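To: structure desk
From: M.T.
Subject: fold request, one chain
Message: Could you run this one when you get a chance? Sequence is below, nothing fancy, just the single chain.
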Amino acid sequence: MAYAIVHTFKGATKDQYDNAVAAVHPKGGLPPGQTFHVAGIAGGDLVIVAVFDSEASWDTFRDGKLLPGLASLENGPPSPPEQVAFEVHNLQSA
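Reply: Done. Structure tokens follow.
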């Protein structure tokens, strides 16, 4: 079952986001198991929405790539983010 993650990084910038994506995503694509990614600034905070094919795929990415990658950045978003995670009930796209 698909699994969604919503991260809100208080006060983070687009530059910090770009640094983080460069460190944790494969060049020009999404990590294994991730099927959707969208990010932007809302109310002065960076909001990222990611959908994975399963909670296990999210756990693997988080523990193996995301957390170590963010920890290695000098100019990354402030951690930890606010997080909401849930099993996806309905996913539609154009």
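Reply (cont.): The radius of gyration is 13 Å. Let me know if you need anything else for the meeting.
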